[in-house]
Amino acid sequence: MQLYDVCTKRVYEKDGEKKAKWYRAGFMKTTDRGNIYIRLFNQPDVDLHVFERKESLPEIQTKD
Question: What residue spans define the domains of the chain?
Answer without folding.
Answer: 2-49
